[in-house]
Amino acid sequence: MPQRLKRFDCASTFPAMKKIENRKLRQAVAAVWQRALAESAWKHPADCPFNPALPDISLMSHVNCLAELALAAAEVLEKCNPELKLERDHLLAGVFLHDVSKLVEVEPGPGGRPQFSELSGLMPHAAYGAFLALQEGLNVKVANIILSHSRLTGAKPGTPEAVLLHYLDYGLADVLRAHRRLDLIMLQGPKFGR
Fold first, then answer.
1. Alpha-carbon gap, residue 162 to 86, rounded angstroms
2. What topology does CATH give the domain 10-179?
3. How far apart are CA 139 and CA 25, in angstroms?
Protein backbone atom coordinates (compact mmCIF):
# COMPACT_ATOMS: atom_id res chain seq x y z
CA MET A 1 0.00 0.00 0.00
CA PRO A 2 1.27 3.53 -0.69
CA GLN A 3 2.80 5.37 2.25
CA ARG A 4 1.92 9.01 2.88
CA LEU A 5 3.55 11.26 5.43
CA LYS A 6 0.72 11.79 7.91
CA ARG A 7 1.02 11.76 11.68
CA PHE A 8 -1.38 12.32 14.53
CA ASP A 9 -1.18 12.40 18.30
CA CYS A 10 -2.39 8.99 19.49
CA ALA A 11 -2.45 10.07 23.15
CA SER A 12 -4.93 12.88 22.54
CA THR A 13 -6.92 10.94 19.93
CA PHE A 14 -7.28 7.87 22.17
CA PRO A 15 -7.07 9.07 25.81
CA ALA A 16 -7.52 5.62 27.40
CA MET A 17 -4.46 4.37 25.52
CA LYS A 18 -2.37 5.73 28.39
CA LYS A 19 -3.96 3.01 30.55
CA ILE A 20 -1.87 0.42 28.72
CA GLU A 21 0.78 0.00 31.40
CA ASN A 22 3.44 -1.68 29.26
CA ARG A 23 5.18 1.22 27.51
CA LYS A 24 6.50 -0.91 24.61
CA LEU A 25 3.04 -2.31 23.97
CA ARG A 26 1.52 1.19 24.06
CA GLN A 27 4.16 2.40 21.58
CA ALA A 28 3.55 -0.57 19.27
CA VAL A 29 -0.21 0.12 19.29
CA ALA A 30 0.48 3.75 18.34
CA ALA A 31 2.90 2.62 15.59
CA VAL A 32 0.19 0.39 14.06
CA TRP A 33 -2.18 3.36 13.94
CA GLN A 34 0.47 5.59 12.35
CA ARG A 35 1.24 2.97 9.72
CA ALA A 36 -2.42 2.33 8.87
CA LEU A 37 -3.11 6.05 8.61
CA ALA A 38 -0.11 6.49 6.30
CA GLU A 39 -1.61 3.84 4.00
CA SER A 40 -5.11 5.34 4.04
CA ALA A 41 -6.94 8.06 2.15
CA TRP A 42 -7.87 9.76 5.45
CA LYS A 43 -5.97 12.59 7.15
CA HIS A 44 -6.96 11.58 10.71
CA PRO A 45 -8.87 8.71 12.36
CA ALA A 46 -11.64 11.21 13.16
CA ASP A 47 -12.23 11.62 9.40
CA CYS A 48 -12.84 7.91 8.77
CA PRO A 49 -16.32 6.61 9.61
CA PHE A 50 -16.56 3.47 11.69
CA ASN A 51 -18.92 2.07 9.04
CA PRO A 52 -20.27 3.49 5.76
CA ALA A 53 -23.78 2.63 7.01
CA LEU A 54 -23.19 4.98 9.98
CA PRO A 55 -21.13 7.72 8.32
CA ASP A 56 -21.61 10.27 11.10
CA ILE A 57 -19.85 8.10 13.71
CA SER A 58 -16.09 8.35 13.35
CA LEU A 59 -13.72 5.45 13.78
CA MET A 60 -12.05 7.46 16.55
CA SER A 61 -15.36 7.87 18.44
CA HIS A 62 -16.20 4.19 18.06
CA VAL A 63 -12.81 3.05 19.38
CA ASN A 64 -12.93 5.49 22.32
CA CYS A 65 -16.46 4.39 23.24
CA LEU A 66 -15.48 0.73 23.05
CA ALA A 67 -12.42 1.37 25.25
CA GLU A 68 -14.62 2.85 27.98
CA LEU A 69 -17.12 -0.01 27.65
CA ALA A 70 -14.36 -2.63 27.83
CA LEU A 71 -12.77 -1.11 30.93
CA ALA A 72 -16.11 -0.82 32.70
CA ALA A 73 -17.15 -4.36 31.70
CA ALA A 74 -13.81 -5.79 32.84
CA GLU A 75 -14.20 -4.13 36.23
CA VAL A 76 -17.75 -5.43 36.73
CA LEU A 77 -16.89 -8.93 35.49
CA GLU A 78 -13.94 -9.21 37.90
CA LYS A 79 -15.96 -7.81 40.80
CA CYS A 80 -18.75 -10.34 40.24
CA ASN A 81 -16.39 -13.23 39.43
CA PRO A 82 -13.42 -13.09 41.83
CA GLU A 83 -11.67 -16.00 40.07
CA LEU A 84 -11.50 -13.96 36.84
CA LYS A 85 -8.49 -11.73 36.17
CA LEU A 86 -8.48 -10.10 32.76
CA GLU A 87 -5.22 -8.95 31.18
CA ARG A 88 -6.02 -5.23 30.80
CA ASP A 89 -3.04 -4.41 28.58
CA HIS A 90 -4.00 -7.11 26.07
CA LEU A 91 -7.67 -6.13 26.25
CA LEU A 92 -6.89 -2.46 25.62
CA ALA A 93 -4.40 -3.18 22.85
CA GLY A 94 -7.08 -5.31 21.17
CA VAL A 95 -9.72 -2.64 21.63
CA PHE A 96 -7.51 0.07 20.17
CA LEU A 97 -6.49 -2.07 17.19
CA HIS A 98 -9.64 -4.07 16.48
CA ASP A 99 -10.79 -1.69 13.73
CA VAL A 100 -7.49 -0.06 12.73
CA SER A 101 -7.78 -1.76 9.33
CA LYS A 102 -10.90 0.31 8.63
CA LEU A 103 -8.53 3.15 7.78
CA VAL A 104 -7.79 1.21 4.59
CA GLU A 105 -11.04 -0.80 4.32
CA VAL A 106 -13.17 2.35 4.11
CA GLU A 107 -12.38 5.22 1.77
CA PRO A 108 -14.01 8.41 0.53
CA GLY A 109 -16.16 7.67 -2.50
CA PRO A 110 -17.94 9.90 -4.99
CA GLY A 111 -18.93 13.17 -3.39
CA GLY A 112 -16.91 12.24 -0.30
CA ARG A 113 -19.49 9.63 0.73
CA PRO A 114 -17.67 6.75 2.49
CA GLN A 115 -17.53 3.40 0.77
CA PHE A 116 -15.75 0.09 1.25
CA SER A 117 -12.40 -0.08 -0.53
CA GLU A 118 -11.06 -2.79 -2.81
CA LEU A 119 -9.08 -4.21 0.13
CA SER A 120 -12.29 -4.85 2.06
CA GLY A 121 -13.48 -7.14 -0.72
CA LEU A 122 -10.19 -9.02 -0.94
CA MET A 123 -9.70 -10.01 2.69
CA PRO A 124 -11.96 -10.32 5.71
CA HIS A 125 -12.34 -7.38 8.05
CA ALA A 126 -9.68 -7.35 10.80
CA ALA A 127 -7.21 -9.56 8.91
CA TYR A 128 -5.09 -6.60 7.82
CA GLY A 129 -5.18 -5.09 11.32
CA ALA A 130 -3.92 -8.35 12.84
CA PHE A 131 -1.20 -8.51 10.17
CA LEU A 132 -0.05 -4.95 10.97
CA ALA A 133 -0.06 -5.73 14.71
CA LEU A 134 2.16 -8.78 14.22
CA GLN A 135 4.50 -6.77 11.98
CA GLU A 136 4.89 -4.17 14.77
CA GLY A 137 5.84 -6.92 17.22
CA LEU A 138 2.58 -7.35 19.12
CA ASN A 139 2.05 -10.86 20.42
CA VAL A 140 -0.24 -13.48 18.94
CA LYS A 141 -2.77 -13.11 21.78
CA VAL A 142 -3.36 -9.48 20.84
CA ALA A 143 -3.49 -10.44 17.15
CA ASN A 144 -6.16 -13.04 18.04
CA ILE A 145 -8.20 -10.37 19.85
CA ILE A 146 -8.11 -8.23 16.70
CA LEU A 147 -8.77 -11.12 14.31
CA SER A 148 -11.55 -12.80 16.31
CA HIS A 149 -13.56 -9.67 17.04
CA SER A 150 -15.16 -10.12 13.61
CA ARG A 151 -17.05 -13.21 12.50
CA LEU A 152 -15.82 -12.54 8.96
CA THR A 153 -12.34 -13.93 9.65
CA GLY A 154 -13.55 -17.27 10.99
CA ALA A 155 -11.03 -16.97 13.83
CA LYS A 156 -12.25 -18.11 17.22
CA PRO A 157 -11.51 -15.99 20.32
CA GLY A 158 -8.60 -17.60 22.17
CA THR A 159 -8.78 -15.68 25.45
CA PRO A 160 -11.42 -14.18 27.74
CA GLU A 161 -10.28 -10.74 26.54
CA ALA A 162 -11.00 -11.71 22.92
CA VAL A 163 -14.46 -13.01 23.84
CA LEU A 164 -15.26 -9.81 25.74
CA LEU A 165 -14.22 -7.54 22.86
CA HIS A 166 -16.14 -9.63 20.32
CA TYR A 167 -19.43 -9.28 22.19
CA LEU A 168 -18.95 -5.65 23.19
CA ASP A 169 -18.17 -4.59 19.63
CA TYR A 170 -21.12 -6.41 18.08
CA GLY A 171 -23.38 -5.24 20.90
CA LEU A 172 -22.37 -1.60 20.47
CA ALA A 173 -22.87 -1.79 16.70
CA ASP A 174 -26.31 -3.37 17.06
CA VAL A 175 -27.46 -0.88 19.71
CA LEU A 176 -26.58 1.95 17.32
CA ARG A 177 -28.21 0.14 14.40
CA ALA A 178 -31.38 -0.54 16.45
CA HIS A 179 -31.56 3.12 17.42
CA ARG A 180 -31.52 4.02 13.72
CA ARG A 181 -33.81 1.16 12.75
CA LEU A 182 -31.16 -0.45 10.54
CA ASP A 183 -30.62 -4.17 9.99
CA LEU A 184 -29.16 -5.83 13.07
CA ILE A 185 -25.93 -7.75 12.67
CA MET A 186 -27.13 -10.37 15.16
CA LEU A 187 -30.15 -11.15 13.02
CA GLN A 188 -28.34 -10.99 9.68
CA GLY A 189 -31.47 -9.90 7.89
CA PRO A 190 -34.76 -8.59 9.30
CA LYS A 191 -34.84 -5.02 10.43
CA PHE A 192 -35.17 -4.11 14.08
CA GLY A 193 -38.74 -4.27 15.33
CA ARG A 194 -40.19 -6.14 12.36
1. 10
2. Hypothetical protein af1432 (1.10.3210)
3. 9
Cα–Cα distance, 99 to 127 (Å, whole number): 10
Taking each helix axis as running N to C, give the angle between helix 23-38 and helix 88-97, from 0 to 180 degrees, rounded to the nearest 10.
10
Question: pTM to 2 decimals?
Answer: 0.92
C-alpha closest to that of 45 among 116, 125, 104, 122: 104
CA 64, 70, 71, 72 torsion: positive or negative?
Answer: positive
CA 93 to chain centre: 10
Tens-place pLDDT, residues 3-20: 555 788 999 999 999 999
Q: Do the beta carbons of residue 22 and residue 89 sit within 8 Å? A: yes
In this prediction, residue 4 carries a pLDDT of 53
Reading phi first (left if > 0) and then psi (alpha if -120 to 50, else beta), residue 111 is in: left
Domain range list for the chain: 10-179
